[in-house]
Amino acid sequence: MSDESRPAPAEPRQDSRVAAVIPAAGRGVRLGPGAPKALRALNGTPMLIHAIRALAASRHVSLVVVVAPPDGAAEVKSLLDAHALPERTDFLVVPGGESRQESVRLGLDALPPAYDVVLVHDAARPLVPVDTVDTVVEAVRAGAPAVVPALPLADTVKEVEPAAVPGEPEPVLGTPVRARLRAVQTPQGFDRATLIRAHETVLDDVTDDASMVERLGERVVTVPGHEEAFKVTRPLDLVLAEAVLTRRRLNDGF
Ligand SMILES: Nc1ccn([C@@H]2O[C@H](COP(=O)(O)OP(=O)(O)OP(=O)(O)O)[C@@H](O)[C@H]2O)c(=O)n1
Ligand SMILES: C[C@](O)(CO)[C@H](O)COP(=O)(O)O
């Protein structure tokens, strides 16, 4: 490869300051009736507080921006005041929007200029281990513009023609090679300027932030995810999350 055609070396961001944006404005429709999902309790503590503690546990993260349900910013501020959180971390709370994408953008709008690496983490993934958070930060600091934690799939995946009526049989169009597929989690980590450009450029609906950066043609890489970083989506996930918390408490010996 000639010098001209060689890709530009990644810019390391070793001195960067890291902020986390936590979108927590979703209703949790798939979880069933009740309070907004992020405010529901797991073993007595709101899911959002678990998620905030998980991110603030990283020594890299010095600011957490919580994106609250649109009419719930005051309630979320009170929750933060009522729970023990690390003193070295700053917190901001802003109201969210109609979609996850809009909520993340509102969180980005609130970021002070000093932060040049941004993590976006679902409140609905309250149990992500700190090692996963640190791995993502380190990969962004090493120069990747976008980093996603990912796991291989256990199930085979089919592409289908979605049925007009739920429950009707769906024609199978193909079977992607499973070994090439990954289930992606959060926190997803970004060079701040790249993520902001992605949110300004990609206006149609997408399901994660990294895919917006892919649309820009920027490099997105995976790092190993963790099975405890699963997303609480349906009622059975609540059972699993509480079981994981109980196991952690027993392992910690209290
Ligand atoms: N308008 C929205 C929708 C979602 N989210 C957040 O995005 C994350 C991932 O979304 P998901 O798990 O789909 O949560 P909900 O949208 O609440 O779930 P559902 O689709 O079942 O209503 C959650 O932390 C959720 O609070 C958000 O901040 N703003
Ligand atoms: C961002 C995400 O958690 C990555 O897996 C996921 O895409 C969120 O999807 P949802 O539709 O908001 O549940």
UniProtKB/TrEMBL annotation:
<comment type="function">
    <text>Catalyzes the formation of 4-diphosphocytidyl-2-C-methyl-D-erythritol from CTP and 2-C-methyl-D-erythritol 4-phosphate (MEP).</text>
</comment>
<dbReference type="InterPro" id="IPR050088">
    <property type="entry name" value="IspD/TarI_cytidylyltransf_bact"/>
</dbReference>
<feature type="site" description="Transition state stabilizer">
    <location>
        <position position="37"/>
    </location>
</feature>
<comment type="similarity">
    <text>Belongs to the IspD/TarI cytidylyltransferase family. IspD subfamily.</text>
</comment>
<dbReference type="GO" id="GO:0019288">
    <property type="term" value="P:isopentenyl diphosphate biosynthetic process, methylerythritol 4-phosphate pathway"/>
</dbReference>
<feature type="site" description="Positions MEP for the nucleophilic attack">
    <location>
        <position position="178"/>
    </location>
</feature>
<comment type="pathway">
    <text>Isoprenoid biosynthesis; isopentenyl diphosphate biosynthesis via DXP pathway; isopentenyl diphosphate from 1-deoxy-D-xylulose 5-phosphate: step 2/6.</text>
</comment>
<keyword id="KW-0414">Isoprene biosynthesis</keyword>
<dbReference type="InterPro" id="IPR034683">
    <property type="entry name" value="IspD/TarI"/>
</dbReference>
<dbReference type="InterPro" id="IPR001228">
    <property type="entry name" value="IspD"/>
</dbReference>
<dbReference type="GO" id="GO:0050518">
    <property type="term" value="F:2-C-methyl-D-erythritol 4-phosphate cytidylyltransferase activity"/>
</dbReference>
<feature type="site" description="Positions MEP for the nucleophilic attack">
    <location>
        <position position="231"/>
    </location>
</feature>
<feature type="site" description="Transition state stabilizer">
    <location>
        <position position="30"/>
    </location>
</feature>
<protein>
    <recommendedName>
        <fullName>2-C-methyl-D-erythritol 4-phosphate cytidylyltransferase</fullName>
        <ecNumber>2.7.7.60</ecNumber>
    </recommendedName>
</protein>
<dbReference type="InterPro" id="IPR018294">
    <property type="entry name" value="ISPD_synthase_CS"/>
</dbReference>
<dbReference type="Pfam" id="PF01128">
    <property type="entry name" value="IspD"/>
</dbReference>
<keyword id="KW-0548">Nucleotidyltransferase</keyword>
<dbReference type="InterPro" id="IPR029044">
    <property type="entry name" value="Nucleotide-diphossugar_trans"/>
</dbReference>
<keyword id="KW-0808">Transferase</keyword>
